[in-house]
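Q&A log
Question type: sequence-to-structure
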Amino acid sequence: MHKLDRYDLKILRILSEDGRITKSALAEAINLSVTPAWERVRKLEGAGLIKGYRAQIDWAALFRSQQVLVEITLARHTAQDMRRFEQRLAEAPEVGFCYATGGGVDYIAMIRARDIDHYQRFIDQLLLEDLGIERYFTYIVTKTIKPDSGHAPAELSDN
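Response status: OK
Response body:
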């Protein structure tokens, strides 16, 4: 991939805000004709900078659910133990996201559960699977202040 220029950066910012923008509207927004603008999009996709396009679904509006944040610390920090734990969480449909972190805990995950009982049964199952969880701390989400928008970082904004 060539070095990104201002057109590429603007394309990435625009697509992060509106993945359904038309080819012509995108071209107009970056001040290029349609073909060169779309060729740039294809190159950005080919380079793996655009991983995909998706809809942001308001799952809470569709289904009654409880979001729970959980901090998890593993007893052992071997590559094998961490890989096994990470693979299990990556495969679990209850896990909305999971981040490996530096500092006081090893992982922070967001669990979507029907209710608190469902969440606890999920955690109990993880503990029964002997994934090396030493301790975990549970935080019930009571209100969403700002959800992850998927938008570009501030340094790519026009401001």
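Response note: Helices lie at 6-17, 23-30, 34-46, 59-62, 79-91, 116-128.
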